[in-house]
Amino acid sequence: MACLAGIGGGVAGMILSARAAGAVLAIDGCAVGCASKCLEKAGITGFHQLRLDALGFEKGSSPVTPENIEKVCAEARPLLRGFRERCNVLEKETDHAARES
Questions:
Q1: For the chain, how many structural domains are there in total?
Q2: What distance separates the 2 farthest-apart alpha carbons in the chain?
Q3: Distance separating alpha carbons of residues 67 and 4, to the nearest angstrom
Q4: Closest Cα partner for 52 from 81, 5, 36?
Q5: Buried-state track 56-95, b at ≥16 Cβ within 10 A, e below 16
Q6: pTM, whole model, 2 decimals?
Q7: What is the domain extent for residue 96?
Q8: Residue 51 pairs with which residues in a beta bridge?
Q9: What three-state secondary structure class fits 48?
Q10: CA separation for the pair 21, 28 (Å, rounded)
Q11: Residue 41 forms beta bridges with which residues?
């Protein structure tokens, strides 16, 4: 996980962490896409975008409820599904390489 404010603020370590991540999910509240724009400005590409307004949420009037959280998570899960599998493969490759050295 990386801090979006740090990425937007040009904090080198945050940007490097985000670039090295196996998957990045930008959660934008509306069509302006501020989270996505921060990532793009920092040179982070290939990220997934989830727009809350496309799910029917409205800024300032959508309460944080278990149902709304689950709605967002249900949309985010498929976007990040391959990430877990890639992590497992990388972990196995790293373990194998470590045993051979």
A1: 1
A2: 57
A3: 25
A4: 36
A5: ebeeeeeeeeeeeeebeeeeeeeeeeeeeeeeeeeeeeee
A6: 0.76
A7: 4-100
A8: 28
A9: strand
A10: 19
A11: none
Ramachandran quadrant class, 94 (left: phi over 0; alpha: psi -120 to 50; beta: rest): alpha
CA angle 33, 34, 37 (to 5 degrees): 85
CA 59 to chain CA centroid, Å, is 20
What's the one-letter identity of residue 52?
L
Question: What are the structure tokens assigned to 56, written together?
Answer: 């029917």
Q: 14, 2 in Cβ contact below 8 A?
A: yes
- Condensed to tens digits (0 to 9), the pLDDT of residues 17-62 reads 999 988 899 999 999 999 999 999 999 999 999 999 999 999 899 9
Q: What are the structure tokens assigned to 39, written together?
A: 């990532």
